[in-house]
Structure of MarR family transcriptional regulator:
Amino acid sequence: MENSAGDGTERDGTDRDSRVAEQLLRLTRRIHHRQKHLLRPVGITPAQGRLLRTVARCETPPRMADLAARLEVVPRAVTTLTDGLEANGWVRRVPDPANRRVIRIELTDAGRGALMALRAARREAAEELLAPLSDEQRDTLGALLSRLTGEAGGNGGDGGEPHARGGERSGDRGSEQGDERGRGRGDARGSERGDARAQAAPPA
């Protein structure tokens, strides 16, 4: 009987944790969907937006490798994202003054304007999502999410941009990382297949 009761308690805990995990996933998808809708007029994807914010936070123009390390994706994924940003005039590739063979990514004035529009869209998405919650509930949610994500304090990142009363950054960042890592895994798989083919034929 004791084992049966213990197993029941363990199952209850597992079911609860699974429910919470599923709720977090649904929340992330909702944020991601809403942000994509709000960003459509700007012409930027969430993944491109995070790269743009990362470039803006760097004290000096970063290298591709620096951005890949910060975003935790393969360099090829950063190249693809940078190509899109550069095509819109939001960043430009510039040679390193100390070593002209090294290319760095520099934010343009148009990129700063896009960054402002991006931040406004993120705030609006967060406000819409958190509308049913009181200020106290938002603070509680923000504290819980910060604990889960290992962040210290409720603010930070994105050049000092405040969170939407406690809950916006964590969900948004999770959705963007998922998008970026999805790109990275796809690029990595493509690269591995290319390496395998290279053993039998010259690379394209």
In short: Confidence is low (pLDDT under 50) at residues 153-204. The CA atoms of residues 176 and 202 lie 36 Å apart.
